Amino acid sequence: MAPPGLTPSGQAVPGLAAAMLEIAADLVERVRCETPFVAATVTSVAGSAPRQPGSTLVVNADGTVLGNVSGGCVDAAVHDACREMLAGDHQPRALRFGYSDADALDVGLTCGGTIELLLRHHDPTTEPWLEPALADAASGRAVAVATIVRGPRTHLGRTIAVRPGRPVAGTLGDELLDQVAEAQTTGALHAGRTGTLELGVADSYCREPMTLLVETRSPPPRMLVFGAIDHAAALARLGSFLGYRVTVCDARATFATPERFPDAEVVVEWPHRYLGSQAEAGLLDQRTVVCVLTHDPKFDLPLLTAALRMPVAYVGAMGSRRTHEERLTRLREAGLTGHELDRLRSPIGLDLGARTPQETALSIAAEIVAHRHGGTGAALRTGVPIHRPGVPLAGAVPSSQESG
Asked: Hey, which residues does 289 pair with through a beta bridge?
């Protein structure tokens, strides 16, 4: 059997899903006060569903609610189930909600999809891993939690917490299983992914098949914008709104000033040198997006030569189609392969008919979001899926249509 792999189900970005680690700042004080709570976490989705695995609704003993799991469709029913668990049996239990063909007014997802959830009772007095994991998440430090959401009843709900540079907290009930889960969870944390992980029996990881839900919380993904132009200011604003840590870099100190880019950190340096320094320092990952707006060969060519060889999520470059063809010729002469050049999104952005810097920034941000989640950029009325699972955030997913 092949080693277990992560099934990506969405990139954790602040505001997009109410995962437990994302509401850690609200939970950590309750945990410190030893207040029990129940967390209802989405473990799988099918069809058109508004939330992805990892989305969580938390209920305190007094009925206070944090987060959501459906955008409103079934949250009230989940809240009631959490209250019942707080008042009675604390054993983990699964819930399933789907659209009811018999009675559309029944509790279900009006969007037509299906979600499965796991309810877990958390008692801070018996879960020493809980406070440090939530405290790290609330402070912006990297942390991941892996929980058995399907499998033997004796293991259901067991959890480990992984924090870089520190011993793993908790156990899944078996030393080998803990080791396998730690390795896979660490990989998910590095990539900033939340998703499910299937463990089989062939390699003696476990006696029965199990599914782990791996929830991650990492520092914000990075958006590196090269070229201190008006389009960069608009893109920095959008990138910050989308949850990126935005950096604007340009070698021209006259243009690269904090006053022009209040939504980003500003660096005065040759672009390729700055990118190289960030890679050497380990500050780039599979979530990083690189937007080259300099439109100047002396900056673009060394920068793109380096960027297209790095395992970042997205590399886009501004310019006309003629500029793009000339740029490709020079990049081939610099030794880049066809596979590396296929990663380049140029002309950058989706076809929105953009004219102003703000509209152009929107077209670039739209392409980044589409690339991130496997979207097509087509109008939803054409019949493309409204909700879909995420795609791996490696940088080598080819474009299915020309952008510009």
From this structure: 223, 314
